[in-house]
Design brief:
Oligomer: single chain
Strand order of the largest sheet: 1-3-2
Strand content: 25-35%
Number of strands: 3
Largest sheet: 3 strands, antiparallel
Structural class: alpha+beta
Length: 67
């Protein structure tokens, strides 16, 4: 398992964090997601590095692009 942290400046409320967590947890290979409103960070635990391009694409598609 591997973990990656993303800076996501568009996080502005609890709905944002819930949406991000729900959408990313549906991706194959993602085990856990924690979106934090205060730090505007998203921490993703995945089976391997190959999952992260899909995570980044999904974040952009749902309106929360990572920097």
């Amino acid at each position: 398992m591997t973990t990656k942290t993303y800076q996501v400046p568009n996080i502005s409320c609890g709905h944002c964090t819930a949406t991000i967590e729900r959408e990313l947890k549906e991706l194959a290979g993602v085990f856990n997601v924690k979106a934090d409103l205060d730090s505007k960070r998203v921490v993703v635990d995945a089976k391997d590095e190959a999952v992260f391009p899909n995570v980044e694409m999904t974040l952009a598609e749902i309106g929360y692009p990572a920097e």
